[in-house]
Amino acid sequence: MANIERKFFNRGDGDEDEIECTRARENGDYSMTDDEGENAGNNKDEFTRTAGFHDGPQTGVKGVLADFRHSQRQQKQQHEQQKAAERAAYQALASKDIIDNSDRTIWTKDKENNMQEKTSHSDIDSELDELDSDEENERLFAEYRDKRMADLRRVAEKRGLGVLRDVTPEEYVEIVEQNADSSNNVFVLLVDQSSVSHRFASFVEAESGNFCQTVFLCVPADECGFCDAEVVPIVLVYRYGQLKHNLVRVVDQFADPRSFEQQDVAHLLRNILLK
């Protein structure tokens, strides 16, 4: 007891100061000196190192604030990382789109050119096929027409149609009477020995095969009583036994009576036999 009292009553000034500081802290009237604040800061740093303080989760008011700040920093870092990743992805995608669009544009142009070329070739081939088809049809039609005309000529020859025949005046009258009840035309050509008569008769003979419903007769004009060379050649056309056309000096129908051609004669025959 004596020892305890001695220690209590024999405290130094430092001990009394410490007691007063303790009381002041308890009453809220204490403020640190500069040296005490520096010592307290050093002691706090030492305590922090000793206790292992960090930015992770803590308890208490200060710990909650520290946790909030730590969470904010983490979210900001994550946000910045996410934005950086999005920018990198966008740039990569944009670069890829530019390359793809360039390739696609080239490919599209090549494809369009190829399709246009194919279409052009296809159109040309189609037109050629149509031309070939038309030419083939025309060829087949021409063959059929020629064959049909040949058949008609053979039949007509047996009946005396479509062929220019030399007959006497008596035969000429008889043939006209024989065809009086038919629709066949009887074409009678009266000629002499002149070059104009021979020229006209040769063209009639060449065209007669195209008129298979007509009987063509060639009779000497002088044997029928026509001795005037100025009136021949003469063309007489009968139908149903009736005289339909009487063309004296028939070559006067042409622009040049001495230099007419076969097409002139063909045109004349069509006009008088098919109308």
Fill in the keyword field for this structure:
alpha/beta, 7 helices, Glutaredoxin, 275 residues, 5-stranded mixed sheet
What report would you give on this structure?
Among the domains are: 2-53, no CATH class; 160-273, 3-Layer(aba) Sandwich (Glutaredoxin). Residues 7-14 and 46-56 have low confidence and may be disordered. It has helices at 2-9, 13-27, 34-51, 60-159, 169-178, 195-207, 262-273, and strands spanning 164-166, 185-191, 214-220, 234-239, 242-247. With 275 residues, it is of the alpha/beta class. The protein has a five-stranded mixed β-sheet with strand order 1-3-2-4-5, with helices on both faces.
Q: Which class do the helix and strand fractions yield?
A: alpha/beta
Give the helix tally: 7
Full CATH superfamily name of the domain at 160-273: Glutaredoxin
**How are strands sequenced across the largest beta sheet?**
1-3-2-4-5
CATH arch. level architecture of the domain at 160-273:
3-Layer(aba) Sandwich
List low-confidence stretches: 7-14, 46-56
Coarse shape: rod-shaped
The N- to C-terminal Cα distance equals: 171 Å
Q: Helical content, roughly?
A: 55-70%
**Rg, alpha carbons:** 66 Å
Instruction: Indicate the CATH topology of the domain at 160-273.
Output: Glutaredoxin
User: Strand content of the residues, in percent?
Assistant: 5-15%
What is the element string, with H for helices and E for strands?
HHHHEHEHEEEH
Number of strands: 5
Helix-strand blueprint:
Layout: H1 2-9, H2 13-27, H3 34-51, H4 60-159, E1 164-166, H5 169-178, E2 185-191, H6 195-207, E3 214-220, E4 234-239, E5 242-247, H7 262-273
Parallel strand pairs: 1-3, 2-3
Antiparallel strand pairs: 2-4, 4-5
Helix pairs in contact: 6-7
